[in-house]
Amino acid sequence: MAVPGPSSSTLLLRARAVVPVSGRPIADGAVLISGNRIAATGRWRDLSSNHGCQEIDLGEVALLPGLVNAHCHLDYTSMAGLFPPPKVFTDWLKLITTTKAGWSYSDYAESWLNGTRMLARTGTTTVGDIEAVPELLPEVSGATPLRVFSFLEMIGITGRRAPHAVLSEAIGLITSLGELRCPIGLSPHAPYSTTPELLRLSGQAARRRGWRVVTHVAESALEHEMIAHGRGEMFEWLRWNSRDMSDCGLGSPVQHLERCGLLGENLVAVHANYLGEGDAELLGKRRAHVVHCPRSHHYFRHAPFPLRKLMKQGVNICLGTDSLATVYKTRRQTVELDMFEEMRGLASEDSTLPAKDILRMATVNGARALGMDGQIGEISQGALADVIAVPFGGRITAVHDAVLHHKGTVSASMIDGKWVVGPAAER
Question: In 3-state terms, what secondary structure has residue 128?
Fold first, then answer.
């Protein structure tokens, strides 16, 4: 397979199948790329020899948009296999908190970069990342070709730091980072790990600035029991740790976000595993986005994800990898941040879900959640030239299923019109 180098300004890519995701698959298809944008897509016979550009036949592959990982913790990549699946969610929280305290700046930086390398070779081109160590961003962000949307993590439960001080520090850090490649946003960690005031202030600040907000919500049964009913193991543990529990027992975690003014179309709600009565309708009404992380879901042995309930209410559901600290790993097994594994994980949860719908969750839907709809996650005129190729030799009607079953490094990957995986990328 001959692949052009990054210096080529205009090229026409041919593939056995082009899978735009936003449209129907195209047999013997082609994608015309001009600079860092997609100029046209269609059948090879209609586009070839008409543009005076280099024509590249990628061979027996399916060409599709780069995958959009809507939720990740790159900082924790090197924690893979450190924690066996816990009996209860709070056990895992205690383990990761202790481990993080023992890590150095270089540990986090190495872990972050290792995660981006995994994602790049397995077909992700854009990732929404929760950043717990924002000071490393100036150093590492230029070392990856990925589009990394960083959301600064904020935690504050004891009252030792005022919510406005926590938020002001995060906004100050964002300002000090200057112009990074992708927008930065806020991530008040979760209803159980933040105060209502921090959630409220974060929502207001994000809306004023046009930022995305990411928060973990309704992740565990313990969180639901704590927030909705004011009881349970998480409730007692956090009360012992001096958290003000007066915001508990007033409704579900999703309703808690609504009371704090955080629900809206700029909110990316991660997990949403345990919903109360009317929560799905509320998420749909507020046009919030929900990220499901199948392998993490399996690791914690959560109750079945309420996929159909959310879909019925028109909620935009996308997929994420979460971190490798929440992926089951045997002693001899190697695990990676890999969106194909997440897609297969969802398929195993619901065997009736069409492969094309799952692929949308890993592309178009993720782009929408990050505020990049029409720009990434699809092959369409004017979209950014983020495309990947995976082996495919079957019939066009089976291409979505074939894509879901791909394993390992992708055959080729292009981000912003430049090759990341492929012969040209190795020069």
Answer: strand
Residue whose tokens read 């600079």: 35
Task: Name the band, by pLDDT with cuts 50, 70 and 90, for residue 17.
Answer: very high
Strand arrangement of the beta sheet that strand 213-217 belongs to: 67-72, 124-131, 147-154, 184-188, 213-217, 267-271, 289-292, 316-319
User: Which residue in this structure is represented by tokens 């005022």?
Assistant: 162
Put residue 6 in one of left, alpha, beta given phi > 0 → left and psi -120 to 50 → alpha.
alpha
Structural domain for 62, as ranges: 10-66+378-426
Q: What is the pLDDT of residue 166?
A: 92
Residues recorded for the chain:
427
Residue 5 lies inside a defined structural domain of this protein: no
Alpha-carbon radius of gyration of the chain: 22
Average pLDDT value for residue range 64-83? 97
CA–CA separation, 383 and 368 (whole Å)? 13
CB 27 within 8 A of CB 16: yes
342 SS3 class: helix
**Domain total for the chain?**
2
* Structure-block tokens of residue 65: 């948009």
Answer yes or no: is pLDDT of 8 > 90: no
Q: Which residues contact 178 (CB under 8 A, 6 or more apart)?
A: none
Nearest to 290 by CA among 313, 270, 263, 311: 270
144 & 52 share domain:
no
Rounded to a whole number, what is the distance in angstroms from the first to the last CA of the chain? 15
Tokens representing 135? Answer: 């000071």
Cα gap 399→323, rounded to integer Å: 29
Tokens coding 6: 């990054």
C-alpha–C-alpha distance, residues 55 and 48, integer Å: 7
Q: How far apart are CA 271 and CA 298, in angstroms?
A: 12
Instruction: For residues 319 and 391, state if they share a domain.
Output: no
